[in-house]
Structure formats: C-alpha cells, structure tokens
Amino acid sequence: MSSLQEKAENFRNLHEKGNPLVLYNIWDPGTAKIAASSGAPAIATGSWSVAEAFGFPDGEKLPRNLAMENINRICNSVDIPVSMDLEAGYGRSPEQVAQSVILAGQNSAVGVNFEDQIIDGKGLYSIEDQVARVAAAKKASNTLDVPIFINARTDIFLQASEVDDQKELLQEVITRGQAYADAGADGFFVPALTDACLIRELCDTCPLPINIMMMSGCPSVSELANLGVARISHGPGPFRAAMELIKKNCSTLYGD
C-alpha cells in the first residue's frame, strides 16, 4: 500500500502541462474502485454527484460531516490519490475554510477543489476576499502531516451569460489566477471555459497548472493537451450517465 505522502507527491506530479491528469469524477467507494481497477492514476469526487447520491441538492447542502465520512471511505477503498470537491469550503470566513481543509486532509484526501462562488448568495467573492480564503486554505494545508493540493476554482465562465464578452471574462480569470497563485494555490480550475483559443491563452499566461472540465463544446482530451492543459475533469457527467442507464433499465422493467 502506498503511503499518504507517496500519494500526495504522485498526485502533485501528475499535473503536467501538455500531459494532463484526466479525472473521471466519482462519488462513492464503489465508483472509486471501478475507476482505480480500470487504471485511473488518481480519482476525484464531484460535489454535485456526491450530493445527489446522498439525496441532497448541490451547494453545500450535504452536511460536512457526511461529506468527510464519504471521502474517508473512498480514500480507504483505493490505493491511488484521491482529491475532494470541497465546494466553497463549507463556510464564508477564512477560518471556516481552513477547518474544512484540515478535515479533508485528516480524512486522507491529497487534494481539494475550492471555488470562489458565494454559496447561497449572489456572484463571486471579491478577489481580495477569495485571496484571503485561498491563503487560509494553503496555511491550513501546511499544518497537516501531508500537505494537500489546493485546486483553486473560479466560476466566472460558469456564471457568465451568452451576451458576456468572452475575452473580457478571460482577463478577469487571468487576474484571479495570478492572485490565487500568489496566495498559495497549487492549481487553477476554470469550468465552462471551452474556447480553444482562450484556453491556450490562459495556459500560456497563468503560472498555475490549468484544470478544464469536459462539457459540451469543449475540445477533446488530446486537443486540450496540445493547448497546455494540465488537468481534465469530467464533473457531473459520469453520475448523469450512470443515472440515465438506471432510468432506462427501470423504464424497461416497469413499463414507464
């Protein structure tokens, strides 16, 4: 069995620009085992999938203690690195974020996703507020026996409308990426960014490994690698596909 330190180092090293870590997001020990046995070098949860699997809506409605119990069971079920989707840190203050990061590390996660949208609020945290939260997450990580990978996420493109100027949005993303890097983030996750030219510009400009999520309109894995992406997530797609298969099978059985 690999030690937690070995898993953490391996996970960090898997973030390679142009040779991305591909994560097929899972939600429980059963799906974790399937991904691991299929050759996945690492796995990660997706908050939407985990919440739905437990009967909760997304947005930190899944109680934190249940989320931590779940990540602990997942980590103990496989011998590969596991990253946890921590949403916005289960709290608005830097101190609350720090506590959540410590709990994730204590439950054997070697990485966390950590977003800048305001849960149960409007819009995103200001750059200044989110920098304080990222810095607290990093400081908390460094107190652990095995520091974890802080994957800072911005929801600028995820919350954008069709009329928003994509290039202007990218400039805000780049600004946040640099600020989060300065605050100690280890990676930068930009879901809903799908334009190849903008992805390349981000990868060329931001000092952090870039994480892109596979979704409609997104370049292929090989194309993303050529653009300089270092990490690719599948988000809620795997859960939705699994549920559609179950729905289809139940409809066949019960005649719906």
Which helices and strands occur, and which strands form pairs?
Layout: H1 4-13, E1 21-23, H2 29-37, E2 43-44, H3 47-53, H4 64-77, E3 82-85, H5 94-106, E4 111-115, H6 127-143, E5 149-153, H7 166-182, E6 187-189, H8 196-205, E7 210-213, H9 221-227, E8 231-233, H10 237-254
Parallel strand pairs: 1-8, 2-3, 3-4, 4-5, 5-6, 6-7, 7-8
Key features of this structure:
48% helix, single chain, globular, TIM Barrel, 256 residues, 10 helices
- Gyration radius, in Å: 18 Å
CA-CA gap between termini:
46 Å
- Give the count of structural domains: 1
- Write down the overall mean pLDDT: 97
Helix and strand run: HEHEHHEHEHEHEHEHEH
Number of helices: 10
| Helix percentage | 40-55%
Q: Spans of 5+ residues with little confidence (pLDDT < 50)?
A: none
